[in-house]
Amino acid sequence: MLVIALNGSPKKDGNTAHLLELALETAGEEGAETELIHVQEVLATQKFPYCRACASPCPAACYRGTALEQAYQRLRVADALILGSPVYFGTVSAQMKGFWDKSRRLRSEKALLNTVGAAVSSGAARFGGQETTLKALYDMLLVQGMILVGDGHHTADAGHHGACAQQPSCSDSYARERVKILTRRVVEVARATAVLRNSTGAKDHPLRK
To answer: Is the pTM above the cut of 0.70?
Structure first.
């Protein structure tokens, strides 16, 4: 099983990255292979870091041969994705939005269909827009046909919409525990739904072999 985390923050060692690293550590303890992608890095290889809708369906011409293409190839073979974004004006960062907007080719090929998805967010205040940011992230996952993981792992509560942290996230013990619970649920659902991903053929990709 492969669990990939997407860091939508411009900071590789910031609050959002900390939450995602904790999630991947937990996934590894559950037996999953893990990987962290910093979207700021892969978008830096683009002439235009945002989608210009140059054609439909998307020909992927703007990112062919770049780190962004490599990142999308990794997403194709993932069993689960955990997205993370800081709160920017009550919603996701521009980096995460740009990365996901350019994934139109994945959607047209149904490459992420039945991939399990969850999200975490961090903000400067306790109630600083984290849940609205999570809902924006979940909308992105839904449009790709992914399976969303929400509240709880058996009797444990991961938060109604996902794990929300107040900065500094490394000191937010409540949020850290919610991230662990959420990740265990992600791995559990990914195992249970593996047959769905295999049946669509979306995961039958050379990168997995």
So the answer is: yes
